[in-house]
Write a structure and sequence with these properties.
The complex is a heterodimer of chains A (82) and B (662). By secondary structure, chain A is mostly helical. Chain A has four helices and no strands. Among the domains of chain B are: 177 residues, Glutamine Phosphoribosylpyrophosphate, subunit 1, domain 1 (4-Layer Sandwich); 186 residues, Rossmann fold, CATH 3.40.50; 70 residues. The longest helix of chain B is centred in the last third of the chain and has 21 residues. Classes of the chains: A mainly alpha (82), B alpha/beta (662).
């Protein structure tokens, strides 16, 4: 799961995750840093629902549950487990 | 309509270095590079201090309007690009003051207005123009530009000599002038989409900002505005909406009436929307017995408005010509169009305008009326509504309101509303002082900035510009600030220039914009916001009230569809875009040191393999910014530009050294 989400973000946002200079931290807010836009967010939600066969509610979309790689990962983990 | 070029030696040293015998050759070469702006005739004046000239497209006073024009004493000389719409009124005023005229041209009126009133003449002009006026007695040069940026004027310093031209490409013919990409400006352009009014994208090359003048005497320079864009608190309209509607109708009608002054046929662009319909209707109401209208149609249904255009043409009774544009046409014409555009662009919509002006020219028409300026004055853009809705936006409470925004963007649909609301919620409060209205737009530009090598604050230049314009900007309200930003960026920096003047003049066609009559702009600024948006956030509400019969009801009730064209999709996998392969090869991109080459390659690979519908708006923009920047670098910095042999029809060449002293 970690790999699937990571690959999706790396491929669509054209970023690398890591701690060195040009890389993006897993905890970085993808919106504030401008790495994802409204179109990208819409696509991300659709990707997660389809890939992991989960339903993301309006409330969840409106929360900041999907604002960083780390949060997306734990959110999907929680969803899949429940 | 014309193009002007020239130079002015600021010091005797500079004059001595410039061999005066070269003047005719230099001026002719500079004019030849702008032959498209004025193919009918060319002329110049030069002496030991200065040299300037005009490539002229004759529209008013075809027979005696040859330029540069002197006054009777030959002390003052003018090279002029533009139209002075109130020249008859000004001429009468000047004649009453004792001025005598040798021709019927508007150019001579401008010259005498300057002789009479100095720079105080400039706010009196109802005009779209750029000019150079030389006073031989004082050895003083004036450069000036119209209020809103209809006509261009660039300048650059070359070793103590001030060199100027309507288009930067003329600098390629001035000895010692060179082009280098300004990295800081590029970051700004990639972020806010356009150069600021004084910028060009190149190091050292500046624009006379619209509404400003430059006066040069020896090495002493004055660079100052003669007008200020404002929504003043005093003088607000307080009458009834019926009065406001009637006045709006009258002021626009008179703006169109003045713009029908021409010795050649005037046609119109008919987009299918409200603004061009109003100008067309008013042209008919003001005495044009027959109007030839033109429009662009797309085979791509997402962008096509042909059914509205045809319905409108039938409704208004115009003789209509539509130009069908396919994706391949855009890819094929892009390089030629950007050569004319001269600055990086973020979308392709200017390219169809390039093709359209060619068609208009082939039909033998030199002047068209267009609708620019209406959205900025009467609140036509969604970004104004967005600013109102996003301020204090609560995703839970306000998600439904997004229904009113951007109905033409595919991902702004019902299914995605909550996700969009979430994004809006994060931009509900101002992050950058003063720029709230445009923050989301600018934020999305952060992606394009990654194409550049150096990491910079892409808003640095705009923040400085806004600070320089305090206190006017500081006391504007939310929507007025959004308008101010549009008037300073997208309108002069793209709509009137790259998509407007540069594309129409590429084929010797002059655009006239009644909505940019300063009386219309100042009137709209006095109107309360409620009359512009109406009771239900309905864009340009007052225009719809003032011209209820201008559009068929079916079009009137449709949401506004901005003029757009296919962007990246025009280039992907198209044989007409073959040239991008070479342009974006590793070796070629390496010649552009300001790019992050690795990221550019990664980005290009991604968009080339993207599925249909998988390209975002910011990716479209980034691609077009990269493509235009790369082509401009090739043309201007590397010097590999399209050359065309032209023969100037030289009708005037004056050596001022042979004239009696002024």
């Amino acid at each position: 799961m970690d790999d699937t989400i990571r690959r999706y973000l790396v491929d669509t946002l054209l970023i690398e995750f890591g701690d060195d200079g040009s890389a993006v931290s897993e905890d970085a807010n993808l919106f504030e840093s401008g790495l994802i836009d409204s179109f990208g967010f819409v696509q991300l939600v659709a990707f997660l629902e389809k890939t992991f066969d989960i339903k993301i509610s309006d409330e969840e979309v409106l929360s900041d549950a999907l604002s960083s790689f780390a949060k997306i990962r734990s959110f999907v983990e929680g969803k899949v487990a429940s | 309509m014309c193009g002007i070029v020239g130079y002015f030696h600021e010091t005797d040293d500079a004059a001595a270095r410039f061999d005066a015998a070269r003047a005719p050759g230099v001026l002719e070469s500079m004019l030849a590079l702008m032959h498209h702006r004025g193919p009918d005739e060319a002329g110049y004046y030069h002496d030991a201090r200065t040299g300037f000239g005009t490539a002229r497209l004759s529209i008013i006073d075809l027979s005696t309007g040859q330029q540069p024009i002197p006054d009777a004493t030959k002390r003052f000389w003018i090279a002029y690009n533009g139209e002075l719409y109130n020249y008859k009124e000004l001429r009468a005023e000047l004649e009453a003051l004792g001025h005598a005229f040798q021709s019927t041209s508007d150019t001579e009126v401008l010259l005498h207005a300057y002789m009479q009133w100095g720079v105080d003449a400039l706010p009196r002009l109802n005009a779209a123009y750029a000019c150079a006026i030389y006073d031989r007695a004082r050895e003083e040069l004036l450069l000036a530009r119209d209020r809103y940026g209809k006509r261009p004027l660039f300048y650059v310093e070359v070793g103590g000599t001030l060199v100027f031209a309507s288009e930067m490409k003329s600098f390629l013919a001035f000895p010692g002038a060179r082009f280098e990409v300004d990295e800081a400006q590029l970051a700004s352009i990639f972020t806010i989409w356009t150069p600021l009014p004084h910028q060009s994208g190149f190091v050292g090359i500046r624009q006379i900002p619209n509404g400003w003048y430059l006066k040069q005497r020896g090495a002493a320079r004055t660079l100052a505005p003669y007008t200020t864009l404002d929504w003043p608190r005093e003088g607000r309209f307080t009458g009834s909406s019926a009065e406001a509607i009637e006045r709006t109708r009258d002021v626009l009608s008179d703006a169109v009436r003045l713009r029908l002054r021409s010795d050649v046929e005037v046609a119109t662009y008919l987009s299918g929307g409200l603004d061009s319909a109003i100008t067309t209707q008013l042209a008919l109401a003001n005495g044009l017995s027959r109007v030839h209208s033109f429009s662009i149609t797309f085979d791509d249904k997402e962008f096509d408005e042909s059914s509205d255009q045809l319905e409108l043409s039938r409704y208004l009774g115009t003789s209509h010509t539509a130009l069908p544009v396919r994706r391949g046409d855009i890819a094929r014409a892009f390089p030629a169009a950007i050569w004319h555009g001269e600055v990086p662009v973020f979308r392709t919509a200017f390219v169809p305008m390039f093709l359209l002006s060619r068609l208009v020219n082939e039909k033998g028409i030199k002047v068209v009326l267009t609708g620019e300026g209406s959205d900025e004055s009467f609140l036509g853009y969604d970004i104004f509504k967005e600013a109102i809705l996003r301020e204090g936006f609560d995703p839970e409470r306000d998600a439904e309101k997004l229904r009113r925004l951007y109905p033409y963007l595919p991902h702004f649909n019902d299914a995605n509303r909550k996700a969009l609301a979430s994004v809006f919620g994060q931009f509900a409060r101002e992050k950058t002082p003063g720029l709230f209205s445009h923050e989301l737009r600018f934020h999305n530009s952060l992606f394009g900035l990654r194409l550049l090598r150096q990491s910079r604050d892409g808003l640095a230049d705009l923040k400085q510009y806004v600070a320089d314009n305090d206190p006017v900007f500081g006391r504007l309200g939310l929507v007025e600030r959004a308008q101010w930003l549009e008037w300073k960026t997208l309108l002069p920096g793209y709509l009137l220039s790259t998509q407007g003047d540069r594309m129409s003049m590429a084929h010797s066609v002059e655009g006239r914009c009644p909505f940019l009559d300063f009386r219309v702009v100042e009137w709209a600024a006095r109107l309360p916001q409620e009359l512009k948006l109406g009771p239900n956030m309905d864009e340009k509400w007052i225009l719809k009230q003032a011209f209820p019969d201008t559009l068929p009801p079916s079009i009137l009730t449709k949401p506004k569809q901005p003029y757009r064209a296919p962007d990246l999709s025009a280039f992907l996998g198209s044989a007409d875009a073959d040239y991008t392969e070479a342009l974006f090869s590793e070796g070629e991109l390496a010649k552009l040191p300001f790019l992050n080459a690795a990221f550019c390659q990664q980005f290009l690979k991604k968009v080339r393999s993207a599925p249909a519908g998988g390209i975002s708006q910011r990716e479209n923009q980034a691609f077009i910014l990269l493509l235009s920047t790369a082509l401009l670098h090739r043309y201007f910095v590397q010097g590999e530009h399209p050359r065309r042999e032209v023969r100037l029809n030289l009708v005037r060449a004056v050596d001022g050294r042979t004239l009696p002293p002024a």
